[in-house]
Amino acid sequence: MSELASSARAMVAPGKGILAADESSPTIKKRFDSIGVESTVDNRRSYREMLFTTAGAEQYISGVILFDETLRQSASDGTPFPKLLTDKGILPGIKVDKGAKPLPFAAGETVTEGLDGLRDRVAEYRSLGARFAKWRATIHITEDIPSDLCIDVNAHALARYAALCVEGDLVPIVEPEVLMDGGHTLERCHEVTERTLRAVFNALYAQRVALNEIVLKPNMVLSGTTCTKQADVTTVAEATLDCFRKAVPAEVPGIVFLSGGQSDELATAHLNKMNELGGGPWELSFSYGRALQAAPLKTWAGKEANLAAAQKAYLHRAKCNGAARTGSYSDAMENAA
Ligand code: 13P
Predict the structure, then answer these.
(1) For ligand 1, which residues put their CB under 6 angstroms from it?
(2) Rounded mean pLDDT of 285-309?
(3) Considering 175, 194, 213, 283, which one is annotated as catalytic?
């Protein structure tokens, strides 16, 4: 097995998943605004240090996705964050896309930018200790969109990014996110997600990316947030498994879901149910941002005195999601905190 293929396997190791802590500067400002903390370089560093130094998190966390600023920062004792994580057996990753920008001649749709100079950035990130990367494309659902144009340009860019990462020795997390905003049904989400995944895998194949060297990070198949009929946990799990079995080749080592705005507990319950139902030929895991961080962020609230309690809240969510990897998460476990 190539080194990249074994890193990809390590990212989806049994019982473990990924912490997405790669909020860009505007996004982390939004998160800090919600707890009344100013988004300064040092507050961002302290918050991330709280997460990364949580004792025992490495039992459930295989990798952490970082933002450029964080990859270059260090803990208060001077240890660079990538080394701190690596010493715990956690793979450091890096968000390399430059965000979703309006797509010309496609109202309401976006294309993710960041390919220019990416080969050089990949080489630098690898030298700074990163072992994997992430690129997120966003697909919006209304009655009229997504267009084929939007799906195709995003699939093409995801494959271009993935090829450059593999060439430069980073495992690419390929993230096509069909957003949950809107009044659409679960069936419509299934249709758009399947269409998107097929385009992404066609592009990866056309661009000669070996599928055992990537990790897929998709949305789950959900009812739109304002849809009057909200599918229950079993329906979501079954629809998601059905969609991915149709569109994702078995050679992909693992699927790590994003939480996308689901509540912490629902994101865990959905993953748990999929694994309880037998999963797929791939590992089914998590790469949650909000669903792992909402509780510790709120508990921390920018105060040193809350550090231990915030780490406890993070460890609890990591443990619950670790259990969801084998379908052994339960209400009792959730409430044991
Ligand atoms: P959420 O789990 O909050 O959706 O974040 C995951 C992520 O990395 C989005 O790009």
Answers:
(1) 20, 136, 175, 258-260, 288-291
(2) 98
(3) 175
Token pair, residue 206, equals 């056309």
> Would you say 325 and 284 are in contact if contact means Cβ atoms under 8 Å apart?
yes
pLDDT at 227 over 80: yes
177 CA → ligand 1 middle, Å: 9
Structure tokens at 82: 């990538």
Is position 175 annotated as part of the catalytic site? yes
Ligand 1 pocket check: which of 23, 255, 259, 271 to mutate, most ligand atoms within 8 Å of Cβ?
259
- Of residues 113, 111, 108, the one with CA closest to residue 141: 108
> Angle at Cα 20 formed by Cα 19 and Cα 23, nearest 5°?
145
From its phi and psi, is residue 308 left (phi > 0), alpha (psi between -120 and 50) or beta?
Answer: alpha
Can you give the pLDDT at residue 6?
98
pLDDT in tens, 18-74: 999 999 999 999 999 999 999 999 999 999 999 999 999 999 999 999 999 999 999
pLDDT band at 305 (very low <50, low <70, confident <90, very high): very high
Q: Which position among 16, 95, 217, 273 bears the catalytic label? A: 217
Average pLDDT score over the chain? 98
How remote is the CA of residue 175 from the centroid of ligand 1, in Å? Answer: 10
217 is an active site residue: yes
Question: Is 222's pLDDT higher than 80?
Answer: yes
Q: How far is the CA of 261 from the centre of ligand 1 (A)?
A: 8
Give me ligand 1 centre to Cα 136, in Å: 9
How far apart are alpha carbons 146 and 192 in whole angstroms? 8
Is 90's pLDDT higher than 90?
A: yes
Beta-strand ranges (E) seen in the chain are 17-21, 61-66, 91-95, 100-102, 110-112, 132-139, 171-178, 215-216, 254-257, 283-288
